[in-house]
Input
Amino acid sequence: MKIYIKNMVCIRCQMVVKSELEKLGLQYVDVKIGEANIVETILPEQLEQLDTSLRKSGLQLMDDKKSILVERIKSAIIELVHYKDEQIRINLSDFLSDKLNHDYTYLSNLFSEVKGTTIEKFYLAHKIEKVKELIVYDELNLTEIAYKMHYSSVAHLSNQFKKITGLTPSHFKKLRNKRRDTLEDV
Output
């Protein structure tokens, strides 16, 4: 049985879900960002207990098909930007269509309707957040960051960074208080 979980954006969220499933004695096949595959059928009272426990950590179970699909779109983008190093060989629309088995126009319209923003803006916001993280770590220079984040050039990265944050990457790097947003807030 597959369950879908809202606000799951990181490995720590996966650990919380695994822990809560184990507390309830529920065996799982795997837990990914946004979903968990449970071996057995879950009783309604177990689902209610799980939802109550997850809400304490800012997560919650979902059963609405549209909300589930929007969360799957968000999870696919978060996983792509924050947890995969290899570049996708196709454009984002084809990637999402293939991964989620839906026409991109439908996905795009649904996402915009539910989230009030476009998939592209959500994707770019996460790319810039990852760039901020890489700048803060100070292990790569801007050329290396542009390459890692699949920008065509440092100028392209800098223009997009400034458009979204209002700062150049260099100015952001000089700031003492290197404020980053949590993934839930992007």
